[in-house]
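User: Could you go from structure to sequence for me? I need the amino acid at each position, not a summary. Structure tokens:
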């Protein structure tokens, strides 16, 4: 019989990190994190850690725990004298007060005045024997009743799914073990910050003599109560290496040796980031089972699969550990490389390409050995990021450019940054910032500016990072990815793990958006030729468009006497605040007619202004062309160069301008009209009016799609979108 101390875990989802604080739920934070200790009934003796000697049974218990963890692939833990003494004191308290599993008394709480009292909760008991505040703040406890040895108690805890998670938690650092009569108490200390936690599974791959069933009432709380059954098959547990996973994205299945799926109950333990499979019936004797978990790692938006197998025994409830096997050789020479991390594949790719390098023959702070390290959670300076970026974008230029200031070791990368007009913090006059950590926001600005070949704002850069599927940003408290400017983490430091993932995703974006040849014309944006006849016409159109967009930042976004009222409307002012027919009323009313749909859909003020200015610039070129009333002008070239236009040609001009700004556009036409549309967020708008268009409405009989969306899905006449064939 075992009893589970409920724990509270706090997760900080930054770059795949898990941060945990473990305290008794009932105490919120007060007692576990300090405060005045109550008067002790028995004054516990303080532990002198330097002179503490572990018993043979304690050493054997530690070896047993570490043997299990090693088979899973987890790092070993150590014995801690303060944890041992706290465990021993509590075991004595339980025996002295005749507290058993069946007595129904909370085995984790002590009562002031009773024999052997040393602290109300595990944190108090650790503090009472001299344990540090760090131990107190990140501690937990497990109890096994009616067992003959500490190792039997450990096996009992491993059979119980909720208790098991503590022993095989990647962030478990040290333990205390004690037995008094037939009660075993284990106390745990967890690292507060766990970077790149390992994957944790149980039964582990290749395990034999695994138990057949689990009886719910042997664990408190009973994990089977929600399924309304008394027992299940032996419980399987899986904890992904990434915390950027939500239950809806996790699918777990169990198969027998013939490949037949075994029915299971699925359960998530949010406290430990663990997912359980409870087989609906006891497992078969001497049968090999295969487990398969599939989940989406939301940090890099990849689907990952974990598959492993184990074999049951003849009926014993406690699995045994097979003899130690020689671990496989590491795939790379870096001591801190781990498979299955969100950055693993990207890191190997970046190293193989020469974009990033490891730290060779340096002291590993974790092991004290001189080893090769990747330091994935290390920060990057602006100078380091520029070096990585130029290794990717312009490797030959980076190699062959001579430094104009040989005393400045980053001279070449900042010469190139000046040449490509990248918005760096450091300059030749301000070199100090080159050696400071670069933020994710600054990184995004530099990358997006390099991509567009012009300086962009930080908000536009973040939008590019999302649109190009380079990142999803950080999740909100519900595990969802809002993909907002705020959720990008612009002020967070850029990590080495971040940049390799971002760069690989950017490379994928470029590969997927290579220039296509459409009707014999090499195009810059998706499928669009803008109705031109040949490559020369296309090149001329794009030359004009790009030159015009260069002056976009210098253009007023609204002309005329009503300009200030447009700003007032964007800032939340409304016509109802003014007298009807007053100048303010009429000005804001005009702004409302033009911008209401964009404002209602919460398009940012900056983006609204950019869109409005681009439309005005394009409209200016259209206005300089004449309509011959023949219906013949059909291309952007005819309007921009030949100065003749029609609705088809006008729509092509709008499409060219907004494609060049990175938007998705398309053109719908009929016998006597053609209209260009732009996608902003999840909505489509008619460019000419900036009103939302209902794209689900089927086209009229004589209408057709003159130009499909720049990229992505194909639009159909019936008002639906279908996936484009690659």
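Assistant: Here is the amino acid at each position, in order:
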């Amino acid at each position: 019989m075992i009893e589970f101390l409920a724990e509270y875990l706090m997760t900080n989802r930054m770059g795949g990190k898990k941060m945990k604080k473990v305290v008794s739920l009932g105490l919120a934070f007060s007692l576990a994190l300090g405060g005045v200790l109550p008067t002790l009934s028995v004054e516990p003796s303080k532990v002198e850690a330097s002179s503490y000697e572990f018993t043979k049974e304690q050493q054997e218990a530690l070896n047993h725990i570490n043997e299990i963890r090693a088979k899973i692939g987890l790092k070993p833990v150590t014995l801690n004298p303060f944890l041992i003494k706290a465990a021993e004191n509590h075991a004595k308290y339980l025996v002295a007060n005749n507290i058993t599993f069946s007595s129904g008394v909370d085995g984790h709480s002590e009562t002031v005045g009773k024999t052997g009292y040393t602290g109300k909760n595990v944190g108090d008991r650790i503090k009472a024997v001299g344990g540090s505040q760090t131990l107190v703040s990140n501690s937990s406890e497990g109890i096994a009743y009616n067992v003959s040895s500490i190792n039997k108690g450990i096996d009992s805890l491993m059979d119980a799914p909720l208790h098991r998670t503590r022993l095989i938690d990647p962030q478990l650092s040290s333990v205390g073990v004690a037995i008094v009569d037939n009660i075993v108490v284990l106390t745990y200390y967890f690292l507060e910050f766990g970077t790149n936690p390992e994957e944790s599974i149980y039964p582990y791959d290749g395990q034999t003599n695994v138990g057949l069933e689990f009886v719910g009432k042997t664990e408190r709380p009973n994990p089977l109560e929600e399924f309304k059954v008394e027992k299940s098959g032996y419980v399987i547990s899986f904890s992904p290496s990434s915390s950027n996973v939500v239950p809806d994205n996790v699918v777990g299945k169990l198969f027998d040796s013939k490949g037949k799926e075994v029915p299971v109950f699925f359960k998530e333990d949010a406290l430990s980031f663990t997912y359980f499979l409870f087989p609906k019936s006891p497992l078969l004797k001497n049968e090999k089972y295969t487990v398969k978990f599939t989940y989406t790692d939301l940090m890099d938006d990849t689907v990952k699969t974990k598959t492993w197998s184990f074999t049951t025994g003849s009926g014993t409830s406690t699995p045994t550990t097979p003899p130690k096997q020689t671990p496989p050789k590491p795939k790379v020479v870096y001591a801190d490389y781990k498979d299955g991390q969100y950055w693993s594949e990207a890191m190997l790719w970046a190293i193989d390409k020469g974009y990033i390098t490891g730290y060779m023959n340096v002291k590993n702070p974790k092991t004290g050995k001189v080893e090769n390290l990747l330091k994935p959670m290390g920060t990057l300076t602006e100078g380091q990021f520029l070096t990585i970026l130029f290794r990717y974008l312009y490797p030959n230029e980076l190699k062959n450019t001579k430094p104009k200031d040989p005393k400045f070791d980053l001279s070449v990368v900042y010469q190139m940054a000046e040449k490509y007009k990248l918005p760096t913090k450091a300059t030749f006059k301000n070199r100090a910032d080159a050696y400071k950590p670069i933020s994710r926001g600054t990184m995004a600005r530099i990358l997006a500016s390099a991509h567009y070949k012009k300086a962009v704002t930080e908000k536009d850069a973040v939008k590019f990072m999302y649109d190009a599927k380079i990142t999803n940003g950080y999740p909100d408290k519900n595990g969802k990815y809002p993909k907002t400017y705020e959720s990008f983490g612009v002020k967070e430091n850029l990590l080495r793990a971040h940049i390799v993932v971002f760069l690989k995703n950017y490379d994928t974006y470029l590969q997927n958006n290579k220039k296509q040849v459409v009707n014999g014309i090499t195009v810059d944006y998706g499928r669009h030729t803008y109705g031109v006849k040949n490559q020369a016409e296309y090149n001329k159109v794009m030359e004009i468009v790009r030159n015009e967009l260069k002056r976009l930042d210098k253009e007023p976004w609204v002309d005329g006497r009503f300009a200030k009222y447009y700003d007032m409307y964007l800032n939340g002012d409304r016509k109802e605040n003014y007298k009807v027919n007053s100048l303010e009323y009429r000005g804001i009313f005009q702004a409302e007619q033009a911008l209401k749909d964009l404002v209602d859909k919460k398009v940012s003020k900056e983006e609204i202004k950019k869109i409005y200015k681009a439309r005005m610039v394009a409209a200016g070129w259209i206005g300089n062309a004449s309509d011959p009333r023949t219906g013949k002008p059909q291309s952007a070239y005819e309007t921009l160069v030949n100065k003749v236009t029609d609705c088809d040609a006008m729509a092509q001009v709008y499409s060219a301008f907004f494609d060049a700004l990175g938007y998705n556009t398309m053109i719908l036409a009929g016998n006597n009209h053609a209209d260009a549309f732009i996608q902003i967020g999840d909505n489509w708008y008619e460019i000419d009016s900036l009103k939302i268009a209902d794209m689900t409405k089927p086209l009229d009989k004589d209408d057709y799609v003159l130009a499909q969306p720049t990229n992505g899905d194909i639009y159909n006449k019936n008002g639906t979108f279908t996936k484009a064939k690659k």
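One structural detail worth keeping in mind: DSSP finds 19 helices and 30 strands in the chain.
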